[in-house]
Structure formats: C-alpha cells, structure tokens
User: What shape does this take?
Amino acid sequence: MNKKRVTDLRTIGLFGKKPIIGLTMFVIGILIFIILAYNLVTQGPLIKLDLPIAEFFHALALKSPGFVIDIMIIGYYAGLQGVEIFVVLFCLYFLYKRFWRELVMFIVTLAGGGLLFEILSNIFKRPRPFILFDKMIWPGSPNIPSFPSGHALSIVTLSCFLIYLLIPKIKSYLKKSLVVLIALLIIFYIGFSRLYVGDHYLTDIISGYAIGIAWFGLAITCVELMFKKSSERKNGNEQLPPKKRGMNK
Assistant: This one.
C-alpha cells in the first residue's frame, strides 16, 4: 500500500549514490565562470568580443518584424514570471505530497541560485549593453547589473531539476531524448532572447548557464548526501534493541 507511484516526481538519489556526477558539474561550471569573470575584470579577449556581437544583434533586431521582437521580449517574462509560477506550483506539489527531500532540493537550488545571482551581479556591477545604443529595442532592467544573467541561471537550474526528476521515470530512450531536447531549446531561447534585445552580452548568458550548472550540481549533491546520511542513521537506529536506541542518538 505504501509503494511509490511511478508518476510521482521523486528523486532516485542519483547524486547521493554517485556524487562524482554533481561534483563534476560543479567543477566544470565554476571553471567556465571563473574564466569569464577573469576576462571581465581584466578586459580580456573574450570580453572584447562582446561588443561587436551585441552590436550585430542590435542591428539585426532593428530590422526585424515586430512579431519577432515580441517573441524575444516574451523570453524575459518566461524566464522570470514563468520560472516563478513553476516554483510556486512545485512547492505546493511537494508540500501536498509531503515529499520533504524534493522540497528542500527545490528550494535550495532555486532560492540559492537567486541569492547567488544577487551576490555575483553586485560584485561585478557590469552595465547592460543597451545603454550603449542610441535606440533601445527593449528597456530591460537598467538598474540591475548584467553579469551573470539571472534569467540564464534560473532557467538552467529549473530545467536541470526537471530533467533530474523526469528522466528516471521515462523508459523510452526516444522520450528521454525528447525531454532533454525540449529543455535545451527552452534554455537556448531564454538566453538568446536576452542577447537579441540587448539586455545582456554573450558572456553574461554563458556565465549564467555556467554558474547555474555549477550550483545545481553542488546543491543537489549536498542535499542528497544529507538525506542519505540521515536515512542511514535512522535505519541503523531502528535495528538496535529499544534500550540502545536512545544511546545512539
């Protein structure tokens, strides 16, 4: 009667069983971010490519039909309010189901990612690219620093979390590939839309992706290991005679 339903969005504890996966994501992501951050501070060659790329897309956007601009502007709301809606729905779902481990994982990854963005963006304080252009395509968020992209960070952490929960439930490799492909297309769309309307430089987007991957790998691994250790301690304590249980706490 207590058997878990296959359709329930529950973690199989992959990163807890194989923490090397999450730690590898952290190392790769943080290395990419450090390279980009170093280039930003020193005005290295990667940062020098940002302006011509931004100017290219700005010129392209000025010639684009209105509906194309509208589609790109939607990316702003999809990456902000869209993510917020998912956060509320998933928190309510995990609370209703009493899936405490998943709830903690979700809050830590998404809320922690938001806090990380606030800290990093205020450290680097990079101005938005659209302030350089005579004509704005989109007013964006002029008072919020540009590096790293908060939209890129949040959509990566949300997409990774959904993939982490969904893929183990899907038996077909074709359907698994389809889920990953859809997630990648959404990630690309959100990032590209920010670049297209002049709200971010390319390195802002890539750094957002990188820190999102790094944070997801680290956060999920830590939460999985914490719950795994707690479960092992609880199971070990239950196997002890009643008199020794109190002594083992």
